[in-house]
Amino acid sequence: MYLFTHINSFSNLVAEGSVGLNFDIFETNLINLLILTGGIFYLGSNALSESLVERQQKILGAIQESEERLAQATQRLTESETQLEQAQLVIASIKSDAETTAKQVKSAILTDGKAEIERLSTVAKSQIGTIEAKVRKQISDYVVALALQRVTLQLEGKLGADTQQQIIDRNISKL
Amino acid sequence: MCKQYEEQLKEAKVGAQSAITNAETEAKEIVAQELDQARKDAAGLVTQVNKQLDAQKELALKQLESQIDELSQLIKEKLLGKQAIL
User: Fold this and answer.
1) Which of B33, B37, B22 shows the shortest CA–CA distance to A105?
2) Which of B13, B49, B79 sits opposite A131 (nearest CB)?
3) Are A142 and B61 in contact (CB under 8 A)?
4) Domain definitions of chain B by residue range
5) A159 burial via Cβ count (<10 Å: 0-12, 13-18, 19+)
6) What is the sign of the dihedral through the CA atoms of B15, B18, B23 and B24?
7) A101 contacts B17 by C-beta, under 8 angstroms
8) Continuous segment of H or E residues that includes residue A116
9) B10: which chain A residues are within 8 Å (Cβ-Cβ)?
10) Domain parsing of chain A, residue ranges
11) Pick from A54, A70, A82, B80: most CB atoms within 10 A?
């Protein structure tokens, strides 16, 4: 609204002839202005150009650096993935080895235990055999001792000197 | 991330050692129980056999009582000769 008002005022001034274009080159200092503009353009273009080139190089450098970082990150990601795979393989191997070792350890202990139980069984059987033999000998000794005791009782006082001599002679002749 | 892998590896190693230890403990417990039972069985068997042999010994001695006279006769025959006995 404010701008519209000014434009309207300016239009009125143009229409009244108070405002207009001055085409007099010397009056308007057009040459000076052109020289000044040219000088500024000449002097400023180099600085601007250098600034733009520098900025462009900075941007390019930043882009290149970003690309390098991206490449490094990608490489690190690949390396990490490889490490992850290797770590998972190692973990699987460790678990597998542990299961195998556990089975072997358990089997070895059970085998040793079984052998120990068999040894105990053998010892018990041997012990029983020894006891049986001992009992047989006790029975045999007892029977023989009792029989000899009865013979001794039966013959006691019944054997004369001649009979005793005959027995001795006969037994000697059997030798 | 590398630290995380190392942690996983460490856990795997600890787990593996734990599995081996558990298997060893379990097997030892089984063996200990079976050995204990075997020792008890063996001791019981020996005791039982001892009792049975004592009983059989008594029975055998009673049964052999009748044969002791025959044995005495044989001893006398060997000692004196058959003719002397008759």
Assistant:
1) B22
2) B49
3) yes
4) 2-85
5) middle
6) positive
7) no
8) helix A30-155
9) none
10) 20-124
11) B80
DSSP string, B11-57: HHHHHHHHHHHHHHHHHHHHHHHHHHHHHHHHHHHHHHHHHHHHHHH
Do residues A143 and B67 lie in contact, with contact meaning Cβ atoms separated by under 8 Å? yes
Tokens of A78: 């690949």
Asked if A138 and B24 come within 8 Å (Cβ–Cβ), the reply is no
CA-closest candidate to residue A138, choices A149, A126, A146, A148 = A146
Are the beta carbons of A109 and B31 separated by less than 8 Å? yes
**Residue A171 phi, psi (nearest 5):** -65, -35
Place of tokens 């274009």: A21
Q: Is A159 helix (H, G, I), strand (E, B) or coil?
A: coil
Model pTM above 0.80 = no
Neighbours of A151 (CB within 10 A): 19
Q: One-letter amino acid identity for A148?
A: L
- Tokens, residue A130: 């020894």
Q: What interface predicted TM-score (ipTM) does this complex get?
A: 0.77
Q: What is the pLDDT of residues A62-90, one digit of tens each?
A: 999 999 999 999 999 999 889 888 888 99
Tokens of A157: 């006082």
Contact B24 A105 (CB under 8 A): yes
